[in-house]
Amino acid sequence: MAKVIRYIPGIDGLRALAVLAVVIFHLNPAWLPGGFLGVDVFFVISGFLICSIVFNQTSKGTFSMISFWRRRIRRLYPALLVMVAFTLVAGNFILIKPERNNLLLQSLSSVFSYSNLWLWRTTGGYWDSSSGNIALLHTWSLSLEEQFYIVFAIFMGIFSKLQKKRLFQFLMAIGIASFLLCIAVTVIHPRSAFYMLPTRMWELAIGCLLAIRVHNNPQPVTSIKRAALYRYAGLSLVFGSFFFIKESEHFPGVYPMIPGIGTALVIFSLIGFEKTRSFLCLRPVRYIGKISYSLYLWHWPVLVFSGFIFVNWTTGPILIALFIMGIMSTLSYHYVETPLRKEGGKRELAAPVLLASVIAALLPLIYMPVNPVFKQSPLAPIENSITFDSGHSYEATKAITSGKGGIAVGELNADYTLALVGSSHARMFSKPFEAFVEEAGIHGVVMGTSGVGITTAPFPQRPNADVINNKRNKALAELKPRITILAGRWELEANANNDFFNILIDRIAKLENSSDVVLVLSQVPMVSLPDRFRGSLRKYLVARERSSLDPFDVTASAFVKEVNGKIKALVEDLHDKRIIFVDLDDTLLTEGDHIRLMSNGQFIYSNSDHLNNAGAEIVFQEAIAPLLEQRMSKK
Known about the structure:
- By secondary structure, this protein is mostly helical.
- The protein has helices spanning 9-27, 38-60, 65-94, 99-111, 115-122, 139-159, 164-188, 190-195, 201-216, 224-244, 257-270, 283-290, 292-307, 315-340, 350-367, 397-401, 424-427, 430-440, 465-479, 490-496, 500-514, 537-546, 558-573, 585-588, 613-632; strands at 407-410, 417-422, 443-448, 483-487, 517-521, 579-582, 589-590, 594-595, 598-599, 602-603.
- The strands form three sheets. Strands 1-3-2-4-5-6 form a six-stranded mixed β-sheet, sandwiched between helices. A two-stranded antiparallel sheet has the order 7-8. A two-stranded antiparallel sheet has the order 9-10.
- A hairpin with a 2-residue loop joins strand 9 and strand 10 (602-603).
- Helix 2 packs parallel to helix 6 (139-159).
- It is elongated, with a radius of gyration of 29 Å.
- The mean pLDDT is 87.
């Protein structure tokens, strides 16, 4: 019978490296660009440890799926439930909509181990800017591991009687299939590859295969020098991935293989050398490894909440966040994880009691739909549901690609037609556009497509950009609208294309061939946000108020203003009265290039670069409708 694997101190050291890499990356990605790969190190370690336990039990004939799952629940859930309950209570007072309201579904998905599936369906992906506001985002990896435990326990229950050689070969085949699937799905749909178990199982399988190898030969390396060589090679791969692999839309793909192999090599080198002298075995390092689960649980909610409290992410706020992480992780490890890990007595009631606490913590979110802290605050208007509307119901991508040309509004049989064309910056004017054409008794068509402006080339998120633009141009040529209103997020399109201005003028000329008049709208002023608040305007406003700053005293992006100025000059240089540049700055900028975020007590921006329906109505009526009426009177 194979010898039971003893406690290996160096594995706790590996855990410490993994969790510290993740924490450092989340504190500031520039400090450790590939720190997020610490999660992949955890996957391999988990696969090795869990499989080692199961193989030892199956070899003795003592393995039970029910007992296995009960131990997993007792090991993982108490600390998770405490963290979730705390996050719910704190989030009720720190967060605002929509992040505050989303806590309800986030918590349920975390507790019932489908967080990765929920995030896959409801977010733009792990790298999406809005993901930084999801307080339980990090539970995706825990849910994925727990799903693996379910699948693996069933697998072992069925195939445990196979010869170890056949079992190794079978797991190897599953791992290779999962790896190839990961590569393929990353190309087609990277978000699915990132979050789903079938495309990540190969990482845990690396640990499983190593566990089988060690189970059959508990002393795989007999030479201290050879063990050191394996260890240094493995650590080089792990550290190299942390420093040189960067977050990417093409992740995971093959990238996790590097730290995965590195982790396996380090573990392999430690078997039989439990007392080896290595920094991985130093007591402080091992202690961080022991509390790594709790540290992983607590670090992310603390960082998310910090973003709603501190405007400047400087030394002081960082040290405060680290102190809170350390305190909560230590308390969790010593007073939740460790005591409740053992079987018997009142400990068996811990998970149900904690689950009831989580449910109780959900109640304030249900009965207090508005953050109670902001009820008497200047920030109250930003929690109004209208602030989130930005013409999303008029998204025309499907209508255009299906050959319908766009979304028809107004009088469908009227001779006079207006067209609203461009990216989501055109779509956001759809509601006042529809109201205008209905009042005028004319025909209108909305052709606003999120992420695809008239100069947009194909890119990973919108590979069909050319298809959309070709079909849109064809529909406009057939429709021949009297007036075409063109809008876009010009600074983004300019950044994506070195020849943007020439392409834009060429596309405007094509629009002119289909229309009597083309109104080229300037990009609406974009709030100049610090990098830490990228895509998170409301979070920035909350942090400003909590830092005793005027939340609505924000300045406009200088680059957007520069791009608008160049487009205006190009249009004027055409000397074509049928092409008119419409500058929206007069409506939305105050003295000193400060942005008008409020109007008559109503918040008018949806995010840092989009107006909500209320803001779109104001701008349309003040800057666009008068020009339309003037041109229509000349028909």
